[in-house]
Design a protein that fits this description.
The structure holds two protein chains of two kinds. Chain A is of the alpha/beta class. Helix content of chain A is about 30%, strand content about 15%. Chain A has a single domain, classed as 3-Layer(aba) Sandwich (Alkaline Phosphatase, subunit A), CATH 3.40.720. In chain A, strands 1, 5, 6, 7, 8, 9, 10, 11 and 12 form a nine-stranded mixed beta sheet that branches. By secondary structure, chain B is mostly helical. Chain B folds into four domains: about 160 residues, no CATH class; about 110 residues, no CATH class; about 100 residues, no CATH class; about 55 residues. Chain B has a two-stranded antiparallel ribbon. In chain B, strands 3-4 form a two-stranded antiparallel sheet. In chain B, a hairpin with a 2-residue loop joins β3 and β4. In chain B, α1 packs parallel to α3 and α22 packs antiparallel against α23. The longest helix of chain B has 28 residues. Chain B is globular and about 75 Å long. Chain B starts with a helix and ends with a helix. The chains are: A alpha/beta, B mainly alpha.
C-alpha cells in the first residue's frame, strides 16, 4: 500500500543478523537440498490448452491445409515467416526466439502428445496433468512433488520452487517447496515479524509458511537483488518473460532450488485465434521470449537443465464458428535445455485422415512417458518408483528413450 | 450462566466472522443475544446498499464497447479505455463500501459467493466495463430468491454471453450459418454444465455439450442498430434449428424458449443441487466439507426447488458451520473487507486496487471461468503469508487515529483470540504495530 518504498534490504539485514552485504554463504544453514549431478528441471504449465498444430504445424501433411482452413499456416518460404523444422513440420513464426536452440540441438518437440486421460474440462484436465493420474481420485498432491519427496530423501531442505505466487497442484504434497513472485507491498518491519513468529507457530498452515517465506525471501533477495522489486507481474503474454527470468536465476544459483514449476495462461483460443498473426501469435511470442529469458538467466547451469512445457489438452483440428478452436485431445510438448538431445520433432504423427471423435488429433505419446524419461535420465529415479509412486499404476508406460544427451 | 454467556459471545464471533466479515463497534454484544437469529434475519431482510446513482447499467457500457469497436479510431479507443478504467475504480469502491458498511454482511458474502460461482472475468479485457454491473443486475437481486431465476438472469446477461463467447455462436444450419462459413462456439454450453449447474461429475458427455450449445445459439447481445443496444437479444436467424437431445431429454424446436426450458431443467437437476450444496458447504464449513452436510443442504435445495433463502438457512443450521477454531482461510479480498470493517477505514480507491492486485485477487480478474479458488491450499504459500503480513502492516500505518488495538481485538474476536496473541498485541511497540499484529494473526486471517 505504501507502495514502492522498498525496505526489503533492511528486512533482510535484520533477519540475517545485521549483515550489511549479504552473501549466500552467510545464510543460516542449508536452505535448499542438492540433487544428483546438480541438474535442473523446469516444468512450464501452459494453462488453457495450447493449439499444438499452430505451434508446430504439420505443413507436410496432405490434409493440413484443407482441415485447418483459415487457421492453416503458410508453408516455409511462402511468405508467412513459418520456420522449417524438417520436411514435414514447421515452427510458428512467433516462436522464432527459440529457433536457435533447435538449431543448436537444445530443443525438441514431441508431437501428438497428451496426458493419458480423456476429458475436455480445463479444470479436471489440469488437475490430472498435475497429479499425474488418469482419473480423479481427489487429487491432493502433484507428481513433481512426489518426485521431490523421493529425491530429497529425509532432508527437510527445499528442492522445489513455485514461481509466480500460489503453489500449483503439481508442486503440492508432502515435500515442502519454496515459492517466489515478483511483487511485494514493500514494507515488513522486523518487530512485526519477531512478534508474529510465535503467534504463527501455533498454526499448522501459517507457521511453516511464514518460516519458509522468510528463508526464501532472504535467498531470492540475495540472488535477484533489487531488480525484481516493484516489477509488476501484469497480465498478458509479456508477463511470462519476467517470471521465467527470475526462475532461471533462482534455480541456477549455487545452493538454490533445483526443480521449478511455472505457469503461463492465455491459450484458450475459442475466438479469433489467428494464424501467423493475432491473439495466439502474441501469446506464442511471449512464451518464446520467456523460454529464451530462462535459458539466458541460467548461464552455465543451462548445460545441466531440462525444461518441459506441457498443456492440459490440445484443440480441435477444425476451425470453429469464431475463427477459433475448441477443446481437443493431443497437443505438442516442448523439451528444451542443454541436457536435451534436440534438433528434431519426435513422436509418431497420427495423421489427419482419422481424428479422435471426428474432431481431435489422436494421442500417440503419453506425456508421462516423457516426464518419466526426464526423471530417470536426469535424476536417476528408478523404474519402479516411476511406475508406482510418481505415476501410480503405469508399469505399462515405458519412459520415452533418447530424450536427453547421454 | 457465565459459561453460557461466554459461549454466546464466541458464537457471536463465529456469526460475524464466518457468515459476515467481522464485527464492528460493540456489535458482538448485540449479536450474542442470539447469534443464529442474527444471521438468519439477514436473509429475511437483506439491506439494499446505497450505490452511487451514476454507476452505469451494463447496457450502457456494452453499447460503448460496441461503439468503440465500430469506430476503431485510436482516439476513441483511448477515451474508451480511460472511461473504463475510471469506471472500474468507481465500481470497485462502491462494491467495497457496500460490503464494509452493510448491516446484512451475510447477504454481501452471498453476493460475492454467487458472483464467483458465475464468474465473468476481465482477464478478457472487454469485460472490465460491465463486470460489476453484471453482479448488481444478475446476481444481487436473486441471492435470497430462486436459483433458477439467477441462472436465467446470468445466462441471458450480455456480460456472460460475451465472456463465454455465446454472443458469437452461430448454428451452422441457421439462416446466417448456411450463408456464411461460421459456426458453433461450445464454450458457454460447456461451462454452463461443468461450472454453473450439474458440475463436472454431473454425468454429461460431449454430445450434451454440443446439444446445449446448439440450444443456446441465438442468445446474444443487441447491436447498435437494434432497439435497445447492449441488452439481451435473441436472433432467430443464427439459431440452430431442429430437435436437440440434452441429458436424455428431447427439446423440440422452440427458438429462444428452448434455452429457457433447458436452463430450467438444469436448475432442477439433482446434480445441480449437489454441486451447489458442495460449493456452499466448502465456503461456509470447511475446504473438505462433511458429505452428510453436503447431502443435507442438497436435499433442502431439491425440496424447495432451489429457494436460495431456504438453502442459505440450511447452511446456517449446520452445526459444523459453527465449529471453532475457524478452519477456513480468508481470501485476500475477504481479508481486506474485514480489515476495513473492523477499523472503519477504507483506503483511497487507487490504493485499494493496488492492494488487491498485489494480493492476487483483483475483483473480476479471476483467472478462469471457474472463479477464485475457495481453499486454503491455493491462498497460503510462503510468499502469500509474507504479503498478507506486509499488507496488514502497511494498512495499519495508514489508518488515521488508530484505535487501541486491545479494544479492537476484543471487539472483533473477543475470547476467540488466544491469550498469547493478546499478550503480543499488548507488548507491541506501537498502536499501529499492535493493530498490524491483530490483523495478521491467524485468528483474524481465518474465518
Amino acid at each position: 500500500m505504501v507502495c514502492c518504498t522498498s525496505s526489503r534490504r533492511r528486512f533482510f539485514g535484520l533477519v540475517a543478523g545485521g549483515a550489511g552485504v549479504f552473501a549466500l554463504a552467510a545464510l543460516p544453514g542449508a536452505v535448499f537440498a542438492a540433487v544428483p549431478g546438480d541438474r535442473r528441471f523446469v516444468v512450464v504449465l501452459l494453462r488453457g490448452a495450447l493449439d499444438g498444430m499452430a505451434a508446430v504445424a504439420p505443413v507436410g501433411d496432405p490434409l493440413y491445409q484443407e482441415k485447418r482452413g483459415a487457421l492453416a499456416l503458410k508453408s516455409p518460404g511462402d511468405g508467412g515467416g513459418t520456420i522449417a523444422l524438417d520436411r514435414f513440420f514447421a515452427l510458428h513464426p512467433s516462436l522464432a526466439a527459440i529457433e536457435p536452440y533447435y538449431r543448436r540441438g537444445e530443443l525438441l518437440f514431441v508431437h501428438a502428445a497428451a496426458n493419458g486421460y480423456r476429458t475436455r474440462s480445463h479444470f479436471d484436465a489440469q488437475d490430472l496433468m498435475e497429479s499425474g493420474l488418469t482419473a480423479k481420485e481427489g487429487e491432493s498432491d502433484g507428481w513433481l512433488n512426489r518426485a521431490i519427496v523421493l529425491l530429497q530423501g529425509g532432508d527437510r531442505a527445499r528442492l522445489g520452487l513455485a514461481v509466480g505466487g500460489a503453489v500449483p497442484l503439481i508442486l503440492r504434497g508432502k515435500a515442502e517447496v519454496a515459492s517466489w513472485e515478483p511483487r511485494g507491498i514493500g514494507t515488513l518491519d522486523s518487530d512485526l515479524i519477531a512478534a508474529l513468529k510465535p503467534i504463527y507457530a501455533r498454526d499448522s498452515l501459517f507457521g511453516p509458511a511464514l518460516a519458509e517465506g522468510i528463508k526464501a525471501q532472504v535467498f531470492s533477495n540475495a540472488v535477484l537483488g533489487d531488480e525484481a522489486m516493484g516489477k509488476g507481474m501484469g497480465f498478458g503474454p509479456k508477463a511470462f518473460a519476467a517470471l521465467a527470468d527470475a526462475a532461471g536465476k533462482l534455480i541456477a544459483a549455487p545452493n538454490g532450488p533445483r526443480i521449478a514449476a511455472l505457469d503461463m495462461g492465455g491459450w484458450d483460443t475459442h475466438v479469433n485465434q489467428g494464424a501467423e498473426t493475432g491473439r495466439l501469435a502474441q501469446n506464442l511470442e511471449g512464451f518464446a521470449a520467456g523460454l529464451d529469458a530462462l535459458a539466458k538467466a541460467m548461464g552455465p547451469a543451462w548445460r545441466k537443465t531440462a525444461v518441459v512445457a506441457v498443456t492440459e489438452f490440445g484443440r480441435t483440428v477444425a476451425v470453429n464458428g469464431n475463427n477459433g478452436t475448441d477443446h481437443g485431445t493431443a497437443s505438442v510438448l516442448f523439451i528444451m535445455g542443454g541436457a536435451v538431445r534436440g534438433g528434431r520433432v519426435a513422436g509418431d504423427w497420427p495423421g489427419l485422415a482419422k481424428l479422435q471423435d471426428d474432431r481431435d488429433l489422436h494421442m500417440t505419446t503419453d506425456s508421462r512417458a516423457v516426464m518419466k524419461a526426464v526423471l530417470r535420465d536426469h535424476f536417476g529415479v528408478d523404474r519402479k518408483a516411476l511406475d508406482t509412486r510418481i505415476f501410480p499404476a503405469t508399469a505399462g508406460l515405458r519412459p520415452f528413450d533418447g530424450l536427453l544427451r547421454a | 450462566m457465565v459459561i453460557m454467556v461466554a459461549s454466546a459471545v464466541l458464537d457471536a464471533v463465529t456469526a460475524s466472522t464466518r457468515f459476515g466479515y467481522v464485527a464492528r463497534g460493540d456489535e458482538l454484544r448485540t449479536i450474542a443475544a442470539d447469534p443464529r437469529r442474527w444471521v438468519l434475519h439477514q436473509v429475511e431482510r437483506p439491506e439494499t446498499p446505497a450505490f452511487p446513482a451514476d454507476l452505469p447499467p451494463s447496457s450502457r457500457m456494452v453499447e460503448m464497447l460496441l461503439e468503440m469497436r465500430r469506430d476503431k479510431q485510436q482516439v476513441d479507443r483511448k477515451a474508451y479505455n480511460q472511461q473504463v478504467r475510471a469506471g472500474y475504480l468507481a465500481e470497485l469502491a462502491a462494491r467495497q463500501n457496500a460490503a464494509v458498511a452493510s448491516s446484512t454482511p451475510f447477504v454481501e458474502r452471498l453476493v460475492h459467493f454467487w458472483s464467483n460461482h458465475f464468474t465473468v472475468s476481465a482477464f478478457r479485457p472487454f469485460e472490465r466495463g460491465f463486470a460489476f454491473a453484471f453482479e448488481r443486475e444478475a446476481i444481487r437481486p436473486h441471492v435470497t430468491g430462486r436459483f433458477v431465476d439467477m441462472l436465467l438472469a446470468v445466462g441471458r446477461h450480455p456480460a456472460m454471453l460475451l465472456y463465454l463467447d455465446n454472443a458469437l455462436s452461430i448454428g451452422p444450419d441457421s439462416l446466417v450459418g448456411q450463408r456464411r462459413d461460421k459456426g458453433i462456439n461450445e464454450n458457454f454450453g460447456r461451462e454452463m454444465l461443468e461450472l454453473h449447474t450439474i458440475g463436472v461429475d454431473g454425468g454429461y458427455t460431449q454430445a450434451d455439450v454440443d446439444a446445449l450449445a446448439d440450444i443456446l445459439t441465438g442468445w446474444s447481445v443487441a447491436r447498435l442498430n437494434d432497439a435497445e443496444p447492449g441488452t439481451f437479444k435473441f436472433y432467430p436467424q443464427i439459431h440452430e434449428p431442429g430437435r436437440k437431445r440434452l441429458l436424455g431429454k428431447v427439446y423440440t424446436e422452440a427458438g429462444e424458449q428452448e434455452g429457457i426450458a433447458a436452463l430450467r431443467d438444469l436448475a432442477a437437476h439433482p446434480a445441480t443441487a449437489h454441486h451447489i450444496a458442495f460449493k456452499l458447504a466448502r465456503h461456509f464449513i470447511a475446504d473438505e466439507p462433511p458429505t452428510a452436510e453436503v447431502d443435507r443442504i442438497a436435499r433442502v435445495f431439491r425440496s424447495t426447488d432451489g429457494d436460495l433463502a431456504a438453502v442459505s438457512r440450511a447452511v446456517v443450521a449446520s452445526a459444523a458451520a459453527w465449529s471453532r477454531p475457524f478452519s477456513k482461510v480468508r481470501t485476500p479480498d475477504d481479508m481486506v473487507i474485514a480489515a476495513c470493517r473492523a477499523t472503519g477505514f477504507t483506503p483511497p480507491t487507487p490504493m485499494l486496487a493496488f492492494s488487491l492486485r498485489t494480493l492476487n485477487q483483483m475483483p473480476f480478474f479471476a483467472p478462469s471461468p471457474a472463479g477464485w479458488p475457495d481453499d486454503a491450499a491455493h491462498w497460503i504459500s510462503p510468499e502469500a503469508v509474507l504479503h498478507r503480513a506486509e499488507w496488514c502492516e502497511a494498512f495499519s500505518n495508514r489508518v488515521p487515529n488508530p484505535p487501541d488495538p486491545i479494544e479492537l481485538a476484543s471487539a472483533t474476536l473477543g475470547e476467540a483470540l488466544p491469550a498469547d496473541t493478546l499478550q503480543a498485541i499488548r507488548r507491541a511497540p506501537s498502536r499501529r504495530t499492535g493493530m498490524a499484529l491483530l490483523l495478521a494473526a491467524p485468528e483474524f486471517q481465518r474465518r
